[in-house]
Design a protein that fits this description.
CATH class of one domain: Alpha Beta
Strand order of the largest sheet: 1-2-3
Mean pLDDT: 82
Order of helices and strands: HEEHHE
Structural class: alpha+beta
Number of strands: 3
Strand content: 15-25%
Length: 104
Amino acid sequence: MTSPPKRRKLWPMADTTATNEGTPGLAFLTYVLQALVEDKDELSIESCHDELGILLTVKVSERDMGKVIGKGGQTIKALRILLRMIGGNASERVNIKILEPLSS
């Protein structure tokens, strides 16, 4: 008999603050955006939980904005779909909002 295949994590759990522990999709979004953006110091993700669900607010630098949105909005659309699936597994509605960077 052969042993069953080992399960492996697809992404590591990101460090979260005490207020964001257990927020569905936060670790996933952090991992994806850290791999996507160049200015990792300017990446900021905040979560807000209310009666409508969980809202993850993302701030990135101006030069990374195009990468996060993607051509025709395809990247952000894919992230929204995946976050809704993660939220569905946790019986929560999860959405993402990207704040426009301040132009200098």
